[in-house]
């Protein structure tokens, strides 16, 4: 038997508002990605191959599951369109689905099962049909692909149940349910040191720290002195909980720092973000001493240094021509500058930058364009670390661009842009493709190539009108 | 980069192999353009033997799709390898193409449409 796992953005996309950097399907539940519960369920049901079909990019999913070696199963991936019906998906994945019984998990839900139970699905055509469903998805069984047409309830009694995932409270509630009563039902990461306490590797528990079960703690966690953890707490990997903090009935996600002398109760902590699961209220903490992402301590110093030094070099080279030619253009009346608020990332941060227009046709205007001097007023922002030297075309702060950035995690605005490197006109799908492609393939060498192309190759063909 | 063309009653199948980058993007656009001029509007592009695709290759597919859709036709893609599929996903162009396990299934989808 094979399993077809269908992940649709329309069912799961709401979760990106809370955790934009995580694909909803790998949201952790008791330190295990949601999709891994699906995977375990498929394996326990007797599946020997799994295909994950998504209508939104799932790079992080592929990085996590890879080809399935860790699970001893062949995992492959497929692309779907948001409106594809099950029939269409079977047609598109026809080679995978041919000549085999199929278990289809379609939607965004949690599947409750007991690893000690008997989940082997029979393979008779008469058993085909809907095994179980909830408001956000269903599990189907088909003895063969043809059995999926005009599907009705299966006569089988399913030894599992589905829970809808339509709010953060649903996810939090399932974490608490597993923690309190179902730890034995699933394979969870960590080893048991006492009843209802699971610890990962490299966990440091300092003196006077109290752990009250049930608690699950991930790898590389440091609990400083006088902390009280539990009851009902899940802590992810790479987490520090500082002195004197008490955490109860909460979930602390991977890569989080929880500051000292805090009381965290009924919350999800995700980096610098504290969320109330009951009402979805988000509190973004600006004080890194209270709560922060561990990422802020591990940024690429090399990249920032290279960016700043390169910008400084260009700044020095452009300084004299900028003031000479700029002064000349002002005298000629072709100097035009506007301020524009541009987005720095997909969390709504913005920055006001000066945009120099170059619409004249004099020799000074042409030289100004050839030497890319319109970039000069932006270079100090690179030196200060607020923009990249080479990056995406800065997007103005509009609702449409904010929406675009919601699914553009690689966006980093640059003084010199990828679209310029490819001599792409502003706006439209072609530019978006180029910008996304280069942002995803960003590297020191790659960005150097783009910069040289803009400065030397494109410089002499650059038009003065912008 | 090799391009093999096979025509049946419902569509033209183009089988590409090797590196699909900016250096061959022009020949794809040209090939499809010539076929459009001969009233072929349904295409399957078999990517199973494409080892690498960059933004230039992708751009030629998008440009060709645009031309074909102007004539109410379509381009369906089959069997991209993992790296090629990721390029579609990264650039969000997976939303505008239909992907099939193999070229036979993609060609059949034109018959059933």
Q: Can you characterise this structure?
A:
The complex is a heterodimer of chains A (466) and B (113). Helices cover 28% and strands 27% of the residues of chain A. Chain A has 466 residues and is an alpha/beta fold. In chain A, the strands form eight sheets. An eight-stranded mixed sheet of chain A has the order 11-12-15-18-21-24-25-26, with helices on one face. In chain A, strands 5-4-1-6-9-8 form a six-stranded mixed sheet. Chain A has a five-stranded mixed sheet with strand order 13-16-19-22-27, with no helix packed on it. In chain A, helix 7 (301-332) packs antiparallel against helix 8. The longest helix of chain A has 32 residues, at 301-332. Chain A is globular and about 85 Å long. Chain A starts with a strand and ends in a 9-residue tail after the last helix. Chain B has a single domain (2-106), classed as Transcription Regulator spoIIAA. In chain B, helix 1 runs parallel beside helix 2 (55-70). Chain B is globular.
Shape of chain B: globular
Unreliable stretches of chain A: none
Q: What radius of gyration of chain A results from the CA coordinates?
A: 27 Å
Write down how many β-strands of chain A occur, each being a DSSP E stretch of 2 or more residues: 31
Number of helices of chain B: 4
User: How many separate helices of chain A?
Assistant: 13
> What is the assigned CATH homologous superfamily of chain B?
STAS domain
**Would you state the CATH class of chain B?**
Alpha Beta
* Spatial shape of chain A: globular
Going by CATH, the architecture of chain B would be: 2-Layer Sandwich
- The name CATH uses for the topology of the largest domain in chain A is Spore Coat Polysaccharide Biosynthesis Protein SpsA, Chain A
């Amino acid at each position: 038997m094979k399993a077809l796992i269908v992940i649709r953005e329309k069912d799961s996309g709401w979760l990106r508002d809370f955790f934009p950097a995580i694909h909803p399907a790998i949201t952790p539940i008791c330190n295990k990605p949601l999709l891994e519960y699906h995977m375990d369920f498929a394996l326990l049901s007797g599946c020997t191959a799994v295909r994950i079909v998504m209508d939104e990019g799932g790079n992080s999913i592929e990085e996590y599951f890879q080809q399935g070696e860790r699970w001893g199963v062949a995992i492959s991936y497929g692309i779907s369109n948001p409106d594809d019906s099950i029939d269409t998906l079977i047609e598109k994945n026809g080679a995978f689905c041919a000549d085999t019984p199929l278990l289809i998990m379609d939607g965004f839900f949690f599947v409750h099962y007991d690893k000690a139970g008997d989940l082997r699905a029979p393979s008779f055509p008469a058993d085909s049909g809907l095994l179980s469903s909830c408001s956000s998805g269903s599990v189907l069984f088909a003895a063969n692909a043809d059995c999926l047409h005009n599907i009705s309830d299966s006569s089988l009694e399913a030894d599992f149940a589905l829970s809808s995932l339509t709010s953060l409270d649903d996810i939090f509630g399932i974490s608490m349910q597993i923690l309190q009563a179902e730890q034995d039902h699933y394979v969870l990461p960590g080893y048991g040191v006492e009843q209802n306490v699971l610890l990962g590797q490299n966990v440091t528990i300092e003196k006077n720290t109290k752990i009250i079960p049930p608690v699950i703690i991930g790898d590389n966690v440091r609990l400083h002195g006088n902390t009280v953890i539990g009851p009902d707490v899940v802590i992810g990997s790479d987490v520090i909980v500082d002195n004197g903090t008490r955490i109860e009935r909460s979930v602390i996600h991977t890569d989080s720092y929880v500051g000292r002398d805090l009381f965290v109760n009924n919350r999800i902590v995700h980096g610098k973000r504290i969320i109330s699961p009951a009402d979805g209220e988000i509190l973004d903490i600006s004080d890194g001493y209270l709560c922060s992402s561990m990422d802020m301590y591990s940024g690429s110093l090399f990249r920032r240094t290279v960016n700043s030094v390169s910008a400084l070099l260009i700044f020095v080279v452009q300084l004299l021509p900028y003031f000479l030619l700029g002064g000349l253009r002002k005298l000629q009346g072709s100097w035009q500058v506007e301020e524009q608020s541009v987005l720095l990332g997909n969390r709504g941060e913005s920055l006001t930058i000066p945009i120099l227009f170059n619409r004249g046709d004099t020799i000074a205007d042409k030289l100004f364009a050839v030497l890319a001097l319109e970039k000069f007023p932006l270079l100090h922002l690179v030196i200060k670390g607020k923009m990249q030297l080479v990056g995406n075309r800065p997007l103005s702060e509009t609702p449409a661009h904010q929406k675009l950035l919601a699914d553009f995690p690689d966006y980093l605005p640059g003084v010199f842009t990828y679209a310029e490197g490819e001599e792409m006109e502003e706006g439209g799908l072609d530019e978006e493709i180029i910008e996304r492609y280069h942002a995803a393939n960003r590297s020191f060498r790659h960005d150097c190539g783009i910069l040289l192309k803009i400065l030397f190759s494109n410089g002499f063909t650059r038009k003065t009108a912008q | 980069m090799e391009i093999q063309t096979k025509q049946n009653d419902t569509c033209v199948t183009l089988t590409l192999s090797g590196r699909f980058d900016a250096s061959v993007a022009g020949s794809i656009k040209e090939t499809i353009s010539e076929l459009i001029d001969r009233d072929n509007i349904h295409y399957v592009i078999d990517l199973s033997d494409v080892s690498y695709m960059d933004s230039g290759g992708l751009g030629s597919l998008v440009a060709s799709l645009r031309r074909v859709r102007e004539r109410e036709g379509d381009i369906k893609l089959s069997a991209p390898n993992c790296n090629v599929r990721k390029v579609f996903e990264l650039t969000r162009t997976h939303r505008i193409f239909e992907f099939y396990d193999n070229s036979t299934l993609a060609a059949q989808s034109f018959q059933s449409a």
